[in-house]
Design goal:
Layout: E1 2-8, H1 12-19, E2 23-26, E3 29-33, H2 36-49, E4 54-60, E5 67-71, E6 77-82, E7 85-90
Antiparallel strand pairs: 1-3, 1-4, 2-3, 4-5, 6-7
Length: about 100
């Protein structure tokens, strides 16, 4: 399976771990072909060791889009499934909860 893993503000030891299995094509962007088991383990390790950093993984799948997206919770956006397509919804962090929309 083809895999893209994008990380930001993660510890150097995690970057070194990812480089064992994937090629870093740009700072924080790792690509490669792995088995599903290795991909699942990479995501598990990334999620556990990313600290306050951000991580998103895109991997090939049998979905309508041909890929799936997995992301750590983020304060400014969330991933939504819309009829089989994954969309990134930007959250308005400046909105006044008392003000009607």
């Amino acid at each position: 399976m083809f895999l893209v893993l994008v990380v930001q503000a993660v510890p150097d030891h995690l970057r070194g771990y990812l480089e064992r299995f994937l090629q870093e094509v740009r700072t924080g962007v790792y690509v490669g072909t792995t088995s599903r088991r290795v991909a699942d383990r990479l995501w598990e390790v990334t999620s556990q060791h990313a600290g306050p950093g951000d991580a998103t993984m895109i991997q090939s799948s049998d979905s309508e889009a041909g890929y799936t997206i997995t992301s750590r919770p983020h304060p400014r956006y969330s991933l939504l499934d819309y009829d089989g397509w994954t969309l990134a919804a930007t959250l308005d962090t400046q909105a006044d909860p008392q003000k009607p929309r």
